[in-house]
Amino acid sequence: MQITGKVALVTGAGQGIGKSIALKLASYGADVAVVDIDYDRVTQTAVEIQKMGRRSMAMKVDVTKGDKTDEMAEAVFKEFDDSIHILVNNAGITRDALIMRMKEDDWDAVINVNLKGVFNCTKSVVKYMTKQRWGRIINIASIVGLMGNAGQANYAASKAGVIGMTKTVAREVAGRNVTCNAVAPGFIETAMTDAMPEKRRDEMIAGIPLGRLGGPDDVAKATLFLASNAASYITGQVISVNGGLYM
Ligand code: NAP
Description:
Rossmann fold
């Protein structure tokens, strides 16, 4: 699963799953551009990649802004010798509430980052991939986009939308040797899930056949696989990384 010589771009790479994916791709030989809304955190990720002997660049990018994602893609393309091979759309947020109490702002914020952000970054990057006739787009969706979850109508809709977009983009760009797949994590230990009360957490673990929450590295390994030549005949698919919580 070596990806030596490939150039990757990972969004939301300042912490959690995105950071783990960025470091994993670098450890298998890729140069990795990392972006996040939090510049200090993502700069730290870039420093760690450079210490591994790979090239990296950190950028503060809000994925909800299409003009900014265009600038991001152009900057990566120029910095890394006119190439950009792997895009990981990972940036995401939650704003949970039962639908009767969910504010319109909470709906808009989640759809904007999780769904429009994937659209913006994909649109900005895919033109470079189709021209070079090689590309891997990997969207980080969620188990919640497949099965729903009370209190997450906005998040579930955004992630189900990402899955629909994944299949559509896969069909549009397959002829140019660009694949597009999604990874659907279950419950992964990150800042996003840290806020869960202990009792709820124990109940959650009791429902997971493999008996534990996942770690960011579990998601990173599936992403690496999809980015590698080992997955060259796989497109439009959703790989679940959930310990068997949803089958
Ligand atoms: P996280 O720890 O909160 O990391 C997400 C990163 O994205 C944060 O650094 C965040 O910055 C950044 N971000 C937020 N809005 C952004 C924007 N507009 N533009 C650029 N960057 C932005 O979350 P995570 O748990 O690693 O989740 C990563 C992805 O996996 C998300 O798409 C999430 O939906 C998905 N996922 C997570 C789980 C889980 O259990 N953790 C399960 C299924 C799917 P701020 O912290 O400043 O907002």
